[in-house]
Amino acid sequence: MTAAIETASAGKLPRQIPYIIGNEACERFGFYGMRNILTPFLVSTLLMYIASQGEREHMAKDVFHTFVIGVYFFPLLGGWISDRFFGKYNTILWLSLVYVLGFVCLSLFVDNPTGFYTGMLLIALGSGGIKPLVSAFVGDQFDQSNKSKAKVVYDAFYWTINFGSFFASLLMPIFLRGFGPAVAFGIPGALMFLAVVIFWAGRNKYTHVPASPPNPHSFLNVVRTALTARQAGQGRMGLAMAVLGVVLALGAFGMWLAGSLEFVPAFCLALVLVMAFGGFGAAMQLERARGAHPDEAVDGVRAVLRILIVFALVTPFWSLFDQKASTWVIQGELMTKPEWFQAAQMQALNPALVMLIIPFNNLVLYPLLRRMGIEPTALRRMGTGIAFSAVAWVVAGCLQLAIDGGDPVSIVWQVLPYALLTMGEVLVSATGLEFAYSQAPTSMKGTIMSFWMLSVTVGNLWVLLSNAAVRNEGVTSNIAQTGLSETAFLMFFFAGFAMLAALAFALYARRYPMQDHYRA
To answer: Which of 146, 360, 488, 515 is deepest in the core (most CB within 10 A)?
Structure first.
C-alpha cells in the first residue's frame, strides 16, 4: 500500500472524496431499492405457499429482519480482514463484486426460494462487509489539518445515501408492480455495478492506510490477559462474569435445539451475552493487564469498552428504525390510499426528509442552539434522536388503534411518525458515523466501525425475539387482556423500550470522556 499521492492542503477538501460519494450514492440506490421492496415481494410472491395472510406477514418480517441482521453482522468480518490483511480499498472492491453477484441471483431466482435466499446471503455479505469500511475510508482521507471538514463530508455522505435511497424507495415499488420482480431486482444490481466502477476509477487518488500487522497488544489479547491474570489476594470475579456469559450463550443455543428459537436469533443472542458479560468482566480486571501490555494498549481497551456501552444503548433505536420497512409497510397496506399508490412508497419520505433535515440542522437549528448556550454535542444529538424515535412509535401506535377500531385512516397520517423517526435517524445515525470514527484508536478504526454496525444487528435481534414471543400462547393471551391488538401492543412496547434507552443514554453521556483519534 502506498501513502497518498497528494496530501490535502491545510483546511481543503480532499479531491478524492467525490469518488467515494458517487460510489455510495449508487450502492445505496441498489441496496435500498432491493430492501424496500423485499417485504411486499415476500408477502405477495415468494411466501404465497403460506395460506394464512397473518402468518405470511409474520414470516416476511422474520425473513426481512434476519436479512438485516446479516447485513449488520458481516461488518465484523469486513472490518477484521481489512484491518489485519488487505486494507480498506481492496476489501471494499472485492466484496463489492460479491455484492453484485448477489443481485444477479435475486434477479434469476425470483420463483426459487433457495436461489433467492442465496442471493440475499451474498448481498448481506457484500453490503455488510463493506459497510464499516466505506465510512472509515472517508475518515482516512482527512488528517489534523482538515479534520474540520470531516463533519461536513460525513453529513454530505449521509445526505448522498438518502439521495440514492429516495429514488430507490419511490421507483422500485413501481417497477415491481409494472415489470415484475426480475426487473425490479435487476435495476438495483446494475446501479451496484456502476458503484464498483466509480470506486475503482479513483484508485490512484485515495489515501491508503495500510493494514495493521499482527499485534500482541491487540484488543482481544489485552482482554484475554485481563480475564486470566491472577493477582495476589484477589479473586477473579471478572473471569467468573465472562464464564457466566458463555454459559448463558450455551443456553441460547439450547433454546434453538429445543425449537423455541430459530438459529439466527439464538446465535445473535449468544453473541450479545458473550460480549456483554465478557466486556463487563474485562473492565473489572483490566488493570491486571498492565505490565504484560503497554499502558497505551490497556487505556485503548478501556476506551473501546466505553464506546461499546454507547453502542449498546443505541440498539433500541435500530429496533424501531428498521421496522419502518416491515411493520409500517404492513400497517400502510391497511390504510386508505389512492389505487396507484403503494404503502412501500411511503419509505421514500424518509430519505427525502433526511435531505431537508440535515441542512436545516446545520444551518439553522445547531447555530440557534449555540446562541442559546446549548452545544449540540454528538452524545446529546444521539440521545435526543433515540427519544424522537420513541415518540414516532407512540404516534404509529395511536394510528394502529384507530385502524383496529375500524376507522378509515388515510396513509397521509403516516407522514407524522415518519417525520419524527427521520429526525431521530439524522441525530443518531449520521452523528454515530462521525462519533465512531473519532473515538476509535488508530489500529481499531475498521473494527470499531464494525461494532457500530453490529448495534443494528442487535436492534433487529430484539425485533425477532418479540416476534417469537407473540407466537407464544401465554404471551398472546396476556396481550389480549390489555384490549390491544398484537401490532398495537408491540408498537407501544417498542416506544417504551426506546424511551428507557434514551434516559439511560443521557445518564451515561454525562460521564463519557470524549476522545480525538484523527490522524496527526
So the answer is: 488
